[in-house]
Design brief:
alpha/beta; Rossmann fold; six-stranded mixed β-sheet; globular; binds adenosine-5'-diphosphate; binds magnesium ion
Length: 252
Amino acid sequence: MTLTNSAIAPEISYSASEVMLQVSGLNVYYGESHILRNVDLTVPRGQMVCLIGRNGVGKTTLLKTIMGLLKPRNGNIVFDGRSIVGLSPDRRARLGIGYVPQGREIIPRLTVKENLLLGYEARTSKPRNAQDIPDEIFELFPVLKTMLSRMGGDLSGGQQQQLAIARAIMGNPQLLVLDEPTEGIQPSIILDIETAVRRIIATTGISVLLVEQHLHFVRQADRYYAMQKGGIVASGATSELSNEIVQRFLAV
Ligand SMILES: Nc1ncnc2c1ncn2[C@@H]1O[C@H](COP(=O)(O)OP(=O)(O)O)[C@@H](O)[C@H]1O
Ligand SMILES: [Mg+2]
């Protein structure tokens, strides 16, 4: 399968102040396996960018490298005007990158409230009422309000995903990075998650980098990048996402 270069939309040129995240020339290896190949990707401020591609192409590897969990062999990652390549995951979180990993990773033996409060750790300064959960969290995810004293592990998959996103929002990020938030989740909850993410963008103005397979959610993004064998092979506005691209890169 080959795609012509024309599938990659001409890069829009953004001024530095318009860019939240800029990945350029990124190469990542697992041992000797070359996983990411010269990846370039831009998340403009206030926009949602979706990364699509079939299983095993390197989407999670890219997000982990952005978060500092994997070290690139070369290339650069600029967040909010500064290179973050040498920084620890913790520093990146404190600079304002919230991450919801694939598979959610909430803490099953902590309560919902305790899981949420962990989100404050990503802030450089804690709010005055650091034992309280802000009302905005419950406006986004009403289901969590009634479950604060439940164990995280007792929640359904969809509820755990909402908890994981809520926890990331507790850190007050400027960029929210979501890895397949609707994977294995029932359709009604998928819509709740979509709605919450859109509302987060509308109310806070933060930027979102989303890995997603669910077409309806992909279409909520402003722009997409399609990945194949560790390289970006197509990109553009989601309003122009063709059926051909959808069939090639989404498991629909
Ligand atoms: N810890 C690891 N060690 C070695 N290879 C890995 C590791 N994690 C993922 N891979 C390989 O890297 C490639 C990309 O994986 P991944 O980024 O998880 O893909 P995706 O998220 O697109 O499904 C796959 O071929 C996968 O087998
Ligand atoms: Mg993945």
